[in-house]
Amino acid sequence: NAGVTQTPKFQVLKTGQSMTLQCAQDMNHEYMSWYRQDPGMGLRLIHYSVGAGITDQGEVPNGYNVSRSTTEDFPLRLLSAAPSQTSVYFCASSYAAGGPDGRDTGELFFGEGSRLTVL
Amino acid sequence: GQSLEQPSEVTAVEGAIVQINCTYQTSGFYGLSWYQQHDGGAPTFLSYNALDGLEETGRFSSFLSRSDSYGYLLLQELQMKDSASYFCAVRGFYSGAGSYQLTFGKGTKLSVIP
Predict the structure, then answer these.
(1) 45-74 in A: which are within 8 Å (CB) of B?
(2) CA dihedral A56, B1, A40, A6 (to 10 degrees)
(3) pLDDT at residue A107 above 90?
(4) Can you give the C-alpha Rg of chain B in angstroms?
(5) Which residue is closest to A107 within chain B, CA to CA?
(6) Residue B94 and residue A56: Cβ atoms within 8 Å?
(7) Mind listing the pLDDT tens digit for each residue in A75-85?
(8) Cβ contact (<8 Å) for A110 and B43?
(9) In contact, B8 and B86? CB cutoff 8 Å
(10) DSSP assignment of B57-92
């Protein structure tokens, strides 16, 4: 199993450009999420999904769109990049409440991160 | 909403024991997790407490007191490779699409010195 795969690992954008961060998982996890990490701010939830066709906003959703057409994929779209979106982005997945055996492990599986710079 | 408080930095000597505290406020509580993150890396899961008490996994232990909204991560026999940031994260209830949400603290940077 590859786990959670994010692409690209590094990206530089100009203000106003658009791009999509890709995230895929091969663990059949119902739950997927995107976090951004900024120095001194910890990890902040952007958007999440509890299954195909179901998404919702997290703590800092403005400027980002998501969709979940399959269980495996959860792309994050920046429609018009701004310097404030310079950050490291992490995709994470897990089983929904209760794993395959019903036991809640509280574990999120993270991708390696995507470092985005907006000039 | 949810909020977590943990110290920003801790320094400890190799071979010693260190405790990283975490207090939280949440409208609904399912459990408290701990993650480790080395510089430039991704967070990796360490432990999870849904019930009061101590959970032990090798050199790491995690404690939870739900009545005090408090938990801690205990690292024993510190090694240089334990130098990293440690995040507590509370799984709480959101009224949106689902209840499985993790809110992270801002992290504690642990420096292990010889």
Answers:
(1) 45, 48-50, 54-59
(2) -20
(3) no
(4) 14
(5) B45
(6) yes
(7) 999 999 999 99
(8) yes
(9) no
(10) ETTEEEEEETTTTEEEEEE-S--GGG-EEEEEEEEE
